[in-house]
Design brief:
The complex is a heterodimer. By secondary structure, chain A is α/β, with parallel strands linked by helices. Chain A contains 9 helices and 6 strands, in the order αβαβββαβααβαααα. A 6-stranded mixed sheet of chain A has the order 2-3-1-4-5-6, sandwiched between helices. Chain B folds into 4 domains: 2-218, Thiamin diphosphate (ThDP)-binding fold, Pyr/PP domains (Rossmann fold, 3-Layer(aba) Sandwich); 222-321, Rossmann fold (3-Layer(aba) Sandwich); 351-519, Thiamin diphosphate (ThDP)-binding fold, Pyr/PP domains (Rossmann fold); 527-579, Alpha-Beta Plaits, CATH 3.30.70. Chain B has 21 helices and 22 strands. The longest helix of chain B is centred in the middle third of the chain and has 24 residues, at 195-218. Chain B is globular and about 80 Å long. Classes of the chains: A alpha/beta, B alpha/beta. Strand 2 of chain A pairs antiparallel with strand 8 (166-171) of chain B, so a sheet runs across the interface.
Chain lengths: 202, 583
């Protein structure tokens, strides 16, 4: 192969993941664990996240890309292998990132934006049917319920991450190691179980 | 071992490795984490949050003149505040390495403008470095400090939101301390730019630029990547990463040290390719110069200069370059009418009560930069202008002097007040204004992630210190009418605010309550709506609280989000809102 072909080949192997939700749902921790798992497998990794004004209860997007070579930290439209959403309409809002054959993991939770409470907009009543149209490969899961059963709603993000992991090719060991090195010791057991639970939901 | 670092963390790492011992800055997205990360290297590095960027710049400049390598950090608009010392430090020059780390915000994710701070490097006639990932952020910080010290010049290290806040792998090294001893070597003709000494400095600035240009020509930060010669692309910063994905086959001149322009390198590259394209975010900082060299190129005609670039946007540029139709990007049908989710004041935010109170009367509100800028959104809709840090105070004076018939209320945060609200207040007292200035004192710099400031009693590196009181400053500025209100008490807040707007003298009202997000606890007990009592008037929704959700017949309080501030209980005319989560 020529240098150019090798570069194209390497770029084509890059995996892109988009995690979305609402400020405060733990998107950033989930993306950090994902990035570490990819790093442990020896891949190049780039992530991007939002800060500041963009964070106060607004839509939050974190993007992770890994592979033999990664240039842009941003995911292009229609190229993500997996979209993970902690809130359901955020999945629709960022659906354009996902490849047509990509996996969408959507937590069946509605967080009503202030634009709806104040009467300026409506929360769609047909979210589930929209999701089915938007995503041929959809895992519409009750991640919050699962996390609550395991002992804490706070672990909802990790349940979703577990489901997201089914759409990627990283070994389970790498995920576990990444979780252990990313969360405080007293939450490790909970998060490992939440991850396993999520994996079993796809 | 390689570590996954954000661009900001990598700059801090580079500064640490290069032997920086003093760092100063003012928080501002997307720059904040540079100094927060550097501060963790205590006691090797002294770091401080200064009251504003001008002070921070001067602190770092003083450290450099005394012989300590230093950095100063700020967001792009912060460099406007620090522009005064920047322009003359260029003349005086520095002693130990000095780098101003400036983070631009293309796309205005968290900023009021989209200025391209690269222009400051040309304006101040100093060197400019632009990393495109975290490894370069570390490497260029070290390189910039070396060049600064060697050529006795301040250097700008400019990042963007996507460089600062993206993480990528970084190979790091050990810290090495420079040989230089600390202690100012007295030399007034070198450090005092009164005209007789300043004029020779002015000439040296030009000589230095010529020397720096030679460095740029062979700097490891500037490189040609020869691939297919039919298209050559000149690019810098994050745009380089997008270019590599959109034009993987093209030859690239990547400029990491973009100013002074490496003319010979640009000419060599241009001569080696059949067509030339310049891809840069925001201003045509490189393109204009390429054209000035008499080299034909494409660029701004097909690459947007407004809002940040992306692979998607450059794919459109590529289509235009190749004369193909730009694929239209139709909105997907299932995204129709999705309710927008802009950032909002958090549940329990103490600012909410003040904005709600201000909505009760016809007053003009001049606002400022911070979380409370969100008070401009409906349903609160209680901020009539925002300009820059501190303008909430000074513009109130201007509106009043212009003859505005309604009472004028200036609203400013605590950190912003220390940053640049004090001089405005002084102006109001001195020039006999009578505006009402409200300081929303939540005892932190909340928007940027809860940094300390002169009013918090703590320093960046965690030491307890003197807590500067806003009322004391108000008194020292000459104000006599100074009052403190509890923003969770609507009746008291309204009474004090509207009494003071009628007062014939200027007033300072301090709305005092800590940010619950920082305190990490509820303000009070969770509230619920008794559906039997609720009349469905929806007045509680006017608070714009994310915890109160509109329902078919009655609003509902989301107990998981409610911070227990009790404002809704105070606005409910039916007395239907009570303590308890209803469980």
């Amino acid at each position: 192969m020529s240098g150019r072909e090798m570069e194209m080949q390497a770029q084509s192997e890059t995996k892109s993941i988009v995690l979305v939700g609402v400020g405060g749902q733990g998107i950033l921790l989930a993306s950090e664990i994902l990035a570490r798992a990819a790093m442990l497998e020896g891949f190049e990794v780039k992530t991007n996240e939002v800060h500041g004004m963009a964070q106060r209860g607004g839509s939050v997007v974190a993007q992770v890309r890994y592979g033999p070579v990664v240039h842009s930290p941003l995911v292009a439209r229609g190229t993500a292998q997996v979209l993970g959403a902690l809130e359901q309409i955020e999945a629709l809002r960022f659906a354009e990132f996902l490849r047509p054959d990509g996996l969408a993991v959507v937590n069946a939770q509605a967080i009503v934006p202030v634009s709806v409470s104040s009467g300026a907009a409506r929360y769609p009543a047909d979210v589930e049917s929209r999701l089915k149209v938007a995503f041929p490969r959809l895992a519409y899961i009750q991640a919050g319920e699962a996390a609550a059963q395991l002992g804490s709603l706070q672990a909802t993000n990790i349940v979703v991450l577990g489901a997201v992991s089914k759409g990627l090719d990283l070994p389970e060991m790498a995920w576990q190691e990444a979780i252990v090195s990313s969360v405080k010791e007293k939450f490790r057991e909970l998060n490992l179980r939440a991850f396993e639970k999520g994996r079993s939901m796809v | 071992m390689r570590r996954l670092l954000s661009g900001n963390e990598a700059i801090a790492r580079g500064a640490f490795e290069a032997g920086v011992t003093v760092g100063a800055g003012y928080p501002g997205t997307p720059s904040t984490e540079i100094l927060e990360s550097l501060a963790r290297y205590k006691p090797d590095v002294y770091c401080e949050w200064s009251p504003n960027e001008k002070v921070a710049f001067e602190v770092a400049a003083g450290a450099s003149l005394a012989g300590a390598r230093s950095i100063v950090t700020m967001k792009h608009v912060g460099l406007n505040v620090a522009a005064d010392p920047l322009m003359t430090l260029s003349y005086i020059g520095v002693e130990a390495g000095f780098v101003a780390c400036v983070a631009d915000d293309p796309g205005m994710h968290s900023s009021q403008n989209e200025q391209d701070s690269r222009n400051y490097a040309r304006f101040a006639k100093i060197a400019l470095f632009e990393p495109s990932d975290s490894q370069e952020a570390r490497d260029f910080t070290i390189l910039a400090l070396q060049i600064s010290e060697e050529f006795k010049t301040p250097v700008i290290l400019r990042t963007t939101t996507r460089v600062s806040h993206s993480r990528s792998l970084v190979e790091q090294g050990e810290r090495s301390l420079p040989q230089q001893k600390v202690g100012l070597v007295k030399n007034p003709p070198r450090f005092v730019p009164i005209p007789v000494w300043g004029r020779p400095m002015r000439r040296k600035v030009e000589e230095r630029l010529v020397a720096l240009q030679k460095i740029a020509e062979s700097s490891p930060a500037n490189r040609i990547e020869w691939r297919d010669r039919s298209l050559g692309i000149i690019t810098s910063s994050i745009a380089y990463q997008y270019v590599r994905e959109v034009w993987p086959e093209a030859s690239v001149l990547k400029l990491g040290m973009a100013y002074p322009y490496p003319d010979a390198l640009i000419r060599k590259f241009a001569a080696g390719v059949s067509s030339l394209l310049v891809v840069e975010e925001l201003d045509d900082f490189l393109e204009q110069h390429v054209r000035a060299l008499g080299i034909a190129c494409r660029g701004r005609d097909i690459v947007p200069g407004i809002m940040e670039l992306s692979v998607d946007r450059l794919l459109e540029s590529k289509a235009k370059l190749e004369g193909r139709a730009v694929p239209e990007n139709h909105p997907l049908p299932f995204t129709q009418d999705l309710p927008p989710r802009p950032p909002v004041l958090c549940p329990g935010c103490p600012h909410r009560g003040i904005f709600y109170a201000l909505g009760k009367k016809d007053v003009v509100v001049t606002g400022d930069i911070g979380c409370y800028s969100l008070g401009a959104f409906p349903p609160l809709d209680r901020m009539d202008s925002i300009l820059c840090m501190g303008a909430g105070v000074s513009m109130a004076q201007g509106m009043e002097k212009a003859g505005e018939s309604r009472p004028v209320v200036g609203v400013v945060g605590d950190s912003t007040f220390f940053h640049s609200g004090i001089t405005g207040l002084l102006d109001i007292a001195y020039n006999q204004g009578h505006s009402t200035i409200i300081v929303l004192d939540n005892r932190t710099t909340a928007m940027t992630g809860h940094q300390d400031h002169p009013g918090t009693g703590r320093t960046l590196q965690g030491e307890m210190t003197k807590q500067i009181k806003i009322e004391d400053i108000g008194r020292a500025c000459g104000l006599e009418r100074i009052f403190t209100v509890n923003p969770y008490n609507l009746e008291q807040s309204e009474e004090v605010i509207f009494r003071e707007t009628e007062a014939p003298q200027p007033s300072l009202i301090i709305s005092s309550a800590p940010c619950p997000l920082r305190e990490r606890k509820r303000v009070g007990p969770v509230r619920r709506i008794d559906e039997d009592e609720c009349r469905g008037c929806e007045l509680c929704l006017d608070l714009g609280c994310p915890a109160i959700e509109g329902g078919e017949e009655h609003p509902h309080i989301n107990a998981a989000l409610c911070a227990g501030c009790g404002l809704c209980q105070q606005v409910c005319p039916a007395g239907a809102i009570r303590e308890g989560d209803g469980a």
